[in-house]
Amino acid sequence: MRTAKDWKEFEVIDTSSGEKLERWGDVILTRPDPQVIWNTPKGTVWRKTNARYLRSSSGGGQWEIKNMPRDHWTIDYKGLKFKISPTGFKHTGLFPEQAVNWDFMADKIRNAEREVSVLNLFAYTGGATLACAQAGAKVCHVDASKGMVAWARENAQLSGLQDKPIRWIVDDCKKFVEREIRRGNRYDGIVMDPPSYGRGPGGEVWKLEDSIYDLVELCAQVLSDKPLFFLLNSYTTGLSPSVMEYILGVTVGKQHQGKVSSSEIGLPVTQSGYVLPCGSTAIWQED
């Protein structure tokens, strides 16, 4: 497992009974996590939580506020600053485990010794976008949510990256890639974090397991002649890292010489010393 272990302003303090206790800067949150199927004892540290997300039996949920000092704040990762704000869907605006992938991409970009362009699809609040831009790449940031793109732009401003060459696009990712193919635009790196399930603007159902191969095959068509990397993230429990690795191998790997790998990604848990699994990543990269 690859572990995002370089955080200073975030930590998973403990996990038990379907929940994780996290420190985001100086704020402590308790959030549900389906991976946490163990019922280890909850120590007194759990009483320090500022807010706890409670799921509703009818779907969704709400925050139980105990002592929240503010409704939003910022945390830093290696010079990147992110606005954190608890949302109605238990999220905070950041997936900190992805830092292990930000570091990988930044390293590839810095060592490329050439101009690099990156396409970030399903780009959310821009963690990968900012990491790549900070490393010197031109980035195209695409997400279907206008609100998420605005949040990402705010993170760029907070990080002092507002003047970097970043294109901010609000669009359906698949349709955008289809247009990029027709326009002849190409990218040296692609990173995507598609949702497990969703509905398109016309009501069509998106299910990752049914759509991921076609999407990767489509995106492979906008890779440059000498690409650096292709990262595919998944939080879908039914889609194993090995399956994603196979998909990258028979699409990107068939067209470009390189190597394919996959693994779970995770976050260290302070109390237990173990690692909480937080999804999977498959990577194609140049040799």
Short account of what is shown:
The protein contains seven helices and 17 strands.
Verbal overview:
The protein has about 290 residues and is α/β, with parallel strands linked by helices. The chain has helices at about 100-110, 125-135, 145-160, 175-185, 210-220, 240-250, 250-255, and strands at about 1-5, 10-15, 20-25, 25-30, 50-55, 60-65, 75, 80-85, 115-120, 140-145, 165-170, 190, 195-200, 205, 230-235, 260-270, 275-285. It has seven helices and 17 strands. Strands 1-16-17-15-12-9-10-11 form an eight-stranded mixed sheet, sandwiched between helices. A hairpin with a 5-residue loop joins strand 5 (about 50-55) and strand 6 (about 60-65). It is globular and about 55 Å long. The chain starts with a strand and ends with a strand.
Rg calc? 19 Å
What is the percentage of strand-forming residues? 25-35%
For the largest beta-sheet, the strand count, sense and barrel status come to: 8 strands, mixed
* Number of beta-strand segments: 17
Arrangement of strands in the largest sheet: 1-16-17-15-12-9-10-11
Number of helices: 7
Low-confidence stretches: none
Mean pLDDT metric: 95
| Helix-and-strand structural type | alpha/beta
Shape: globular
Give the helix proportion (percent range): 10-25%
**Secondary-structure element sequence?**
EEEEEEEEHEHEHEHEEEHEHHEE
Quaternary: single chain
